[in-house]
Design goal:
Elements: H1 22-52, H2 57-70, H3 73-85, H4 88-109, H5 113-139, H6 147-175, H7 180-201, H8 219-224, H9 229-244, H10 248-259, H11 268-291, H12 293-312, H13 317-343, H14 352-381, H15 383-405
Protein name: Major Facilitator Superfamily protein
Keywords: Membrane, Transmembrane, Transmembrane helix
Subcellular location: Cell membrane
Length: 412
């Protein structure tokens, strides 16, 4: 029925980026440009909020949770609407445009925490609406045997943008006399370029994709997705991954405290993570296609636990910076695209965006809770005790996930 295995043409034999298809490359370009815009803001936001506005760890945890998780339910809305109207490109474009406009909203928010929180929520609304339709376009443009490679290449291009964003922010800050407004305006202009690339070069459907069903997608069809045991296990695994993740801002703030890196160079911490992600996403995606996606995903849990343990270890300086950022980049490279590649083959074309949105929403809502709880733990017991607790949670979550994913089923 709805969750029968989907058959597609075999992937072209060979190696390299060229075999992922033009639509994947076009979507990767959009993500690259958009991430330059997004990471310009993300790289300076923790510094601005905690050291500029003097937010407590708990208050920052709330804002950081909102940034990723508060609008998570919109992912389901976006996925379902995209499947319902068969206009995944249009909905993704609207999400990208909404996030672009939000960058200008930061100018109006000024130093108001309420205003910043509202603008951050609008920006995340855009991300929530676009993510599932975009990932659905990738899965529908790629044969199942090459999904790890396709998502690996896409996430690599995304990571290039994440790598360049903080560097651009640093250059703008240096050239504008430390003006955050200049960063926000430049971020907006870059985001508009990403929307233009989507409109001009991304196709709604790919020749590899099966023909859409004649009847429109209904709500009960979307609910029926949860009858799949494979999807339920994957949804729980994604939720556990969200619970285990404390968030980039906390990791970078702890690194800044431990290494006493200068505030001007704070945005470069995100560059270190992005570099690791950039170098590893495509190779790990191809490795996941070769040896199975489950072992690669579980290796990501191990890398996350190692990152947290390093933050609590009695070392400092460059040794801590390099080791922690490398492990953190490995965590993202082994989990982000691989999780979507695991979900793709168990979802039907007609409900592809909706199913991916369910998985992403479970992860994002769990992340919201995790970020707030970590902020509370930091305020109550200090950063070292809090991060050791996070490491324990990551180990336990990884063990439970292993039991879920290696249960008999079609996940591979």
């Amino acid at each position: 029925m709805y969750l029968s295995t989907i058959t597609r043409p075999r992937a072209a034999k060979g190696r390299g980026v060229a075999f992922v298809g033009g639509n994947v490359l076009a979507l990767g370009t959009v993500s690259l440009i958009t991430d330059v815009s997004a990471e310009m803001v993300t790289a300076v936001l923790p510094l601005y909020l905690v050291l500029g506005l003097h937010l407590s760890p708990l208050a920052y945890g709330v804002v950081d949770g909102v940034y990723t998780g508060a609008t998570a339910l919109l992912r389901i809305v976006g996925g379902y609407v995209a499947d319902r109207v068969r206009a995944r490109k249009t909905l993704a474009g609207f999400g990208y445009a909404l996030s672009a406009v939000a960058k200008l909203g930061l100018l109006a928010a000024g130093r108001s925490l309420t205003g910043i929180g509202f603008v951050v929520a609008v920006d995340r609304m855009g991300k929530g609406l676009r993510t599932a339709p975009r990932d659905a376009l990738i899965t529908m443009s790629t044969p199942p045997s090459a999904l790890g490679r396709a998502f690996g290449v896409h996430r690599t291009m995304d990571a290039v943008g994440a790598f360049l964003g903080p560097l651009v922010a640093l250059a703008v800050l240096a050239g504008s006399g430390q003006s955050y407004d200049a960063v926000f305006v430049t971020s907006f202009l870059v985001a508009i370029l990403g929307v233009a690339v989507l409109v001009l070069f991304v196709r709604e459907r790919d020749p590899l994709a099966a023909s859409p069903p004649a009847s429109p997608t209904r709500v009960r069809d979307a609910v029926a997705l949860l009858r799949s045991a494979d999807l339920r296990r994957l949804l729980l695994a994604a939720t556990l991954l969200g619970v285990a993740t404390i968030g980039d801002g906390f990791v970078y703030l702890m690194l800044q405290r431990r290494t006493e890196i200068g505030l001007l160079w704070f945005p470069l911490l995100a560059v270190g993570t992005s570099l690791g992600y950039l170098l590893l996403a495509a190779p790990l995606g191809m490795l996941a296609d070769r040896i199975g996606r489950r072992p690669v995903l579980l290796a990501g849990y191990a890398a996350l636990a190692v990152t947290y343990l390093l933050l609590a270890a009695p070392i400092g300086g460059w040794a801590l910076l390099v080791a922690a950022l490398a492990a953190y980049g490995l965590y993202y490279a082994a989990t982000d695209g691989v999780l979507m590649a695991l979900a793709g083959p168990v979802l039907p074309d007609a409900l592809r965006a909706t199913g991916l949105a369910l998985v992403q929403t479970g992860q994002a809502l769990a992340y919201l809770v995790s970020s707030v709880l970590f902020g509370l733990a930091w305020a109550a017991w200090g950063p070292t005790a809090a991060v050791l607790m996070a490491a324990l949670v990551a180990v336990v979550a990884g063990g439970v996930t292993a039991g879920l994913l290696f249960h008999k089923g079609r996940l591979a």
